Amino acid sequence: MTLKNEHKVFKSMQEVKDANKASGLYFFDEGNMKFFKSVIETELISSRWFITSELGPNFGALREFSVREVVDQSGRIKTVDRGFKSSEEAQRSILNLLGC
């Protein structure tokens, strides 16, 4: 089974992390995650999207939630939307992407 453009369907966040690292990418790098106080909030949604939250140096004291997309078999990650105040708001954005 593949994503659009014949991309691999990932079954877990661990598979995405492994592919990202094996491709020489740094999205899930421990230093990056620590710097932004980034948390992966969900497992994969429809083998493609997931939600993170960040508390980086420019975000103040509030955690912001972002919708991320796995765009290809390398595990490359694209930010689809961000600035949500809750995980629930970000999940609604994904439902909109799914046409629900």
Give a quick precis of the structure.
It contains three helices and six strands, in the order ββααββββα. The chain is an alpha+beta fold and 100 residues long.
Overview of this structure, please?
The structure is a single chain. This protein has 100 residues and is α+β, with helices and mostly antiparallel strands. The chain has one domain. It is 27% helix and 27% strand. The chain contains 3 helices and 6 strands. It has helices spanning 13-22, 30-35, 87-97; strands at residues 2-3, 7-8, 39-40, 49-54, 64-70, 77-84. The strands form 2 sheets. Strands 3-4-5-6 form a 4-stranded antiparallel sheet, covered by helices on one side. Strands 1-2 form a two-stranded antiparallel sheet. The longest helix is centred in the C-terminal third of the chain and has 11 residues, at 87-97. It is flat. The two termini are 22 Å apart. Mean pLDDT is 89; it is low at 1-5.
The percent range for strand residues is 25-35%
Report the major sheet: 4 strands, antiparallel
Structural class: alpha+beta
> Tally of extended strands?
6
Rg calc? 13 Å
Shape designation: flat
Strand line-up across the major sheet: 3-4-5-6
Quaternary structure state of the chains depicted: single chain
Low-confidence stretches: 1-5
The helix count comes to 3
Rounded mean pLDDT is 89
For the record, give the distance between the C-alpha atoms at the N and C termini, rounded to a whole number. Answer: 22 Å
The share of residues in helices is 25-40%
Number of domains: 1
Topology as H/E string?
Answer: EEHHEEEEH
